[in-house]
Amino acid sequence: MKGIQKAFARTPHMLSSKVGMTKKSTDPEFDDYSRRFESIEKATEKLLKDSKAYTEAVTNLFTNGAEFATHFAVIFHPLGSEYSLDSKHPDAQHTIANVDGYQAAIEDLKASVVPELELIDSRIVGPIKEFQNILKAIRKSITKREHKLTDFDRHNNSLTKLRDKREKTLNDEKNLFKLEQDFEIASTEYDYINTAMKNELPRFLVQATQFIDPLFHSFYYMQLNIFYLMLDKLNGFAEGKFEVTVPAAQIASDYEAQRSDALERIEALNITKRLISTARMVQSQRQGSGLVPPSSLGRSPSASTTGSRSPASSTFSKKPAPPPPSAAAPPPPYSPPAPSANFSLAAKKAPPPPPPLKPKPKPAVQYVVALYDFNAQADGDLDFKAGDRIEVVERTDSAEDWWTGRLNGQTGVFPGNYVQDT
Fold it and tell me: Rounded to the nearest 5°, which phi and psi values hold at 225?
């Protein structure tokens, strides 16, 4: 509570000093130490982020490399009904013979690098986090020094303003005595912490440099060790199998030469194109050849009515195809009724049927897009992630209410202020 009261008391002076209405004291020596301390804070934070990013990158490199080797080996393994795959594909004989060895080498390399990454976590990341805790404690002392400087300036400004007043009342004399006491206390506290910070900060800056430099050198040599380990393992696998001194440009040109027109031949295969329904393809071929008349109902005629099938034996007889709609028997000719029957037919004729009701138009489906993640808090809530497209089942005019929606086959309620209209 006392700290809050002091914060309220300092706020007017801090605002007026920012706009230049009141005087603010400066100490160039301490300001220089403060800038150097801030640079150490930023460098420490960057070193911690880079160390974590490097560890994650190397881990992902070997994880993806092991998965690539596994999938590559599966592609070049023969199927159950295939034998002597290398003789069947002589151009790929060298690759087929080495895919299993490559997979084993990558798995061995991954297992060898894991201890090195654990060293980075224990010898680099751990000490940096401990050093950051020390920096946070010093930052609190610097913030406290700033607060004491603010108290010193505001009491000094108030005291100077009251002293410069020409005609002082009795209350002014009482306030002057109180301000002198407050200024003396603020001046003592500020001088103490300012002197202590100017004496201790230079020593800390020297020790911090001596602490960070070994960390940086250790991190550098740990990276070199990982690179050397990768080079040694991969060279051991490639020895006697592959030429590792070939420049990158030649590798690319050799690949293009060996690939030839393989990509064009793959793209020309029907399996790589969009598949057409077999029934629709057969129907279009038969209609194009004139074997089957088009159906008036828009349906494809079945194979039992259109195709010609070879008999399984001499006794087999196939039913004839039904006639097309145009070959149906004509209706009997029209014969007018007798004159005496006109009246009875008119009397017995039913009234015309009522017109059919027009179907009511279905309301258009409305969708909204999630702005934030929402986790279900009770039964009946709808889970979603930011960016999901939700079908609105029921909604109100206010976005502060709970709406009903559907996502991935699940229906539930969700807050309307978590989404926006598409």
Answer: -65, -40
Which residue bears the tokens 């060790």? 225
Cα–Cα distance between 98 and 245 in angstroms, integer? 19
Which residues on neighbouring strands pair with residue 413, listed in sequence order? Answer: 381, 404
Give the pLDDT confidence score for residue 21 in this predicted structure. 58
Which of 216, 168, 289, 232 lies closest to 51 in space, CA to CA? Answer: 216
- Count other Cβ atoms within 10 Å, centred on residue 117: 17
Chain CA centroid to CA 76, Å: 33
What three-state secondary structure class fits 383? coil
Q: What does pLDDT average to in each consecutive run of 10 residues of the chain (422 residues)?
A: 63 63 79 92 90 90 88 74 64 77 87 88 89 93 91 86 81 83 90 92 89 83 90 85 81 81 79 60 59 43 41 40 44 50 48 68 82 88 92 90 92 92 84
* pLDDT score recorded for residue 332: 52
The overall longest dimension of the chain from CA atoms, in Å, is 138
Phi first, then psi: give them for residue 322, nearest 5 degrees.
Answer: -65, 150
Q: Starting at the edge strand that comes first in sequence, how are the strands of the sheet with 366-370 ordered? A: 410-415, 402-407, 389-394, 366-370, 419-421
Question: If 0-12 CB within 10 Å is exposed, 13-18 middle and 19+ buried, where does residue 414 land?
Answer: buried
Task: Please state whether the predicted TM-score (pTM) of the whole model is above 0.85.
Answer: no
Query: Helix, strand, coil % (nearest 5) of the chain?
Result: 65, 5, 30
* Residue 380, helix vs strand vs coil: coil
Measure the CA–CA gap between 250 and 304, rounded to whole angstroms: 62
CB crowding 333-369: b at 16 or more within 10 Å, else e: eeeeeeeeeeeeeeeeeeeeeeeeeeeeeeeeeeebe
Q: Between the CA of residue 158 and those of 172, 182, 219, 306, what are the distances in Å?
A: 12, 10, 54, 108
Count of CB atoms within 10 A of residue 173's CB? 11
What is the end-to-end Cα distance of the chain in Å, rounded? 48
Return the bridge partners of 390, or none.
Answer: 368
CA–CA dist 417, 371 (Å, integer): 9
Cα–Cα dist 97/77, whole Å: 10
Alpha-carbon span 112 to 226, nearest angstrom = 9
Distance CA(191)–CA(197), nearest Å, equals 10
**pLDDT value at residue 314:** 39
Say how far apart CA 293 and CA 25 lie, in whole Å: 101
- The whole-number pLDDT of residue 254 equals 82
Q: Give every CB contact of residue 318 below 8 A, 6+ residues apart in sequence.
A: 309, 311
